[in-house]
Amino acid sequence: MNRTDSKSETAHGLEAVLLANRAKLIGFLIARGAGDGAEDVFQELWVQIAGTHAGPVANPLPYLFRAANNLMLDRYRSARAAKLREKAWGEQDSGTVHPSVERSLISREDLERADAAINELGDRAATAFRKFRIDGMSQRDIAALLGVSLSTVEADLRKVYAALAALKGQIDE
Questions:
Q1: Cβ(130)–Cβ(123) under 8 Å?
Q2: How far apart are CA 156 and CA 173, in angstroms?
Q3: Which end of the chain has fewer surrounding CB within 10 Å, N or C?
């Protein structure tokens, strides 16, 4: 007896119908294009059914087939959207236009100004900002590294953001 069989002995209602018709539902999912993902969709359906406390369903098997189909549609839409998003990003990258020499110089000057504005706030604030935004460290880890409280790190980050916002306002003028 496998795990599914032992579970179906204790399952009730819609979950019992789901488990009793496992092979049919997986076959349906494979026929709908799930392929190797049919088991995953079935498991997702099972989790959804087990997690809900719905009342009795008049026609449980058609209900389950419809729910399985809806999960397949959700997965298809999600995969399609991800594919379109990747394609759009890829197209933007393939047509990258290099900035002019003038634009490069202006950008470097802006970067130097931003770096100077950050450094003016002190080593602790500059380190906290770079560890958080560039290295991806958590604020809690930065606090431990610098030997300060979490609220101090948060205050330092607010100071840096305010300085950068002010600099952006100057650059935009």
A1: no
A2: 26
A3: C
Q: Which of 5, 4, 11 is nearest to 43 (CA)?
A: 4
Distance CA 38, CA 124 (A): 53
Contact 18, 45 (CB under 8 A): yes
- Chain-centroid distance of CA 49 in Å reads 24
Distance CA(91)–CA(83), nearest Å, equals: 12
Write down the pLDDT at residue 57. Answer: 79
pLDDT digits (tens, 9 = 90+) for 96-136: 667 788 888 988 999 999 999 999 999 999 999 999 999 99
**Tens-place pLDDT, residues 157-168:** 999 999 999 998
CB atoms within 10 A of CB 97: 5
How many Cα atoms are found within 13 Å in the side-chain-facing hemisphere of 126?
Answer: 10
Tell me the residue type at 138.
S
CB atoms within 10 A of CB 49: 21
Q: Residue 137: which region, alpha, beta or left (left: phi > 0; alpha: psi -120 to 50)? A: beta
What six digits make up the tokens of 48?
């959804």
**Helices vs. strands in the chain: H and E counts, helices first:** 9, 0
